[in-house]
Amino acid sequence: MISNWQTPLAIFVVLLAVALIVRGAVKKRKTPGCGSGCGCPTDKFKAGLKK
Amino acid sequence: MSTAPTSPGPARAPVYALVGNPNCGKSTLFNALTGLKQKIGNYPGVTVEKKIGTAYSQHGHALTIIDLPGAYSLAARSPDEAVLRDVLLGRRTDTPMPDRIVCIADATNLERNLYLIHQILDLGRPVILVLNMMDVAAQTGLVVRAARLEKELGIPVIPCEAINGKGLVELKLAMSRHDLPLSRHSWEIPAPIAPAVSELAASLVDNDQRGPLIARAEALLLLTDQDTVRVAGSRPLSARTTEILRSWEKRWQGQGTDWAGALVNSRYDAITELCTHVIERSAVKTGASVSDRIDAVVTHPLWGWLVLGGVMAALFLSIFTLAQVPMDWIGDHTAALATWVKHTMPAGDLRDLVTDGAIGGVGSVITFLPQILILFFFIGLLESTGYMARAAFIMDRLMSRVGLNGKSFIPMLSSYACAIPGIMATRTIEDTKDRLVTILVAPLMSCSARLPVYLLLIAALFPSAAVPVGAKVAIMLTMYALGTAGALFFAWLFKRTLLKGEPPLMIMELPPYRLPKMRDVALHMLERAWLFMKRAGTIILGISIILWFLTAYPKAPAGSTDSQQIAQSFAGMAGHALEPVIKPLGFDWQIGIGLISSFAAREVFVSSMGVIFNAESSEENTAPLRDALLAAKWPDGRALFTPLVCITLMVFYVFAMQCMSTIAVVKRETNSWRWPLFQTVYMTGTAWLVCLIIYQTGRALGF
After folding, report:
1. pTM of the model
2. Assigned architecture for domain B6-181
3. ipTM higher than the 0.90 cut
């Protein structure tokens, strides 16, 4: 059937979305914020200063 | 011939700290040096966190710049000022002490600005003094002799007009110098205090690992500040130093010596003496300035409120009128895209994911992009002209009646865009209880994430184009007013129960009005638009895809309708589980799915409705979401999205706590889970109760 290949691909896309959102949530737990919209220094800047 | 002592340049790229009073143009200068896009506003509290950027010297070498919070002195009265103090004294565990300091002073008010600079000169770090707003000083008849000031202080003094870019080349040249001179300015420490300064400084060197000059400066600060405000990340003083400080304080208390006052007065005497040599005033202009004449109306107890109301009404009117054409364009093209995909791809799960999930979900949200652009354009315009400070001044009268001072309005005003920077802006509030109350009520201000929800429901409420736009504006204003009224009510309640305290006095500087810098306003608008699109393309896309899966699985038996499929899906099960709780408010399980998904981001409600109702659409072409909502029905055939339900749902979004990111930031700012949990319970509980009253009363009256 034509739709057979679509189902596993759709499931893969869903799993990918879940993984990316979980990754974003874990990252945000370490540095909670609005995602750079409010002007806080990011981890990258802080790490750069420590060097 | 003697030469001024110099500090050899550091081996690595030097780290500069940018410091100055609030509203001295520090953020403008930081922008100009680093090219980072910063919010440029001239009301206090915009810079609430240190910002770090990279500038390049005239020779192309990288310079790291930390933009520290604005303050009038190193004596900290708020967490914000404590961060400034701790960075400069090297107390921060996460930030190295800056190698050099650029102090920015408002040339129109040099004497006041010099207090902080005078303290910084004591630190023994190389300092460059930037005299900003020289153009404004000249207009008011003030002449600041920069060369004379440079000679008196022994440090580079750069006249500057940061907003026009004048003086930047000279500043970069000064920052590029390998060996900056240390200040040779000195001042008289009162004789009774001098032994304490020496003893404290020695202990700071021996027990707290401070350099000699920093130790002396910190000793002076400890004697004037009492170090009452401490923040996380700050290294505490050693036990020996604390013991010495307490013993001197006890001795002076017994003698009746005002040691802090003596030090402050001595410093001010030195500053006044300095200013007599470097400041000249030409013929003083008589009469009120243009800013004063405007303020006579804008800050008037009656006209001021009318002006504020008019400004807000004009803002929302623009949102509804100017955005319609581009919104329709986006909506039409999004629907056309979905239709093209349906015709092109064979039927199957992937096609449904793309059309109903991704395009249906994200498309529903990005339709509101024109309105977001207009909202932030106007906010940027109001900030750029200086009007926001006046709004805070007017609100102070109202805020003080509920037990808060006007400084709480700035975080609350920021919360109209997003509660997260608003909550972080509370660091400028000195009183802990006031700060906590502001954090608890700030999310009640209708943020930009609620805007797509309001707009969708207002479109469903007034589907006919014949309805005057004024009616839509009135509903929108009512929602914003309701949120503001709710915030003020709960602030009043908390200040009288959980967090009792006296409202502090607010002293606030009203900066002069300026013509808006359209480039900065446009940059601000585009920055917010980019963030909106980024959010749509990441979080909202991801959640829409997941939501599609939750509505598409488990699969219903063959022959089931789309509605039956969703009803028995994972999402349907969750919605049905919630329905008994929300049915008294007029909401069904489909709306329940939207409410649950809104916890990730409020605007996801719109994409959730897009996923659910577009999937249920029996038409080959996707219909506008508004029409799909209006066609939705209860099982008994009654319309789901009646005008009463639309209003009730909007009110729910006004009050409910539905943003996980905000909860996370409240947890960080309060260092506890207790307050964010309390906030979630009181806000969502209020939403449920108020909506219950509205809906049941409306039904009883026949609506």
Report:
1. 0.63
2. 3-Layer(aba) Sandwich (3.40)
3. no
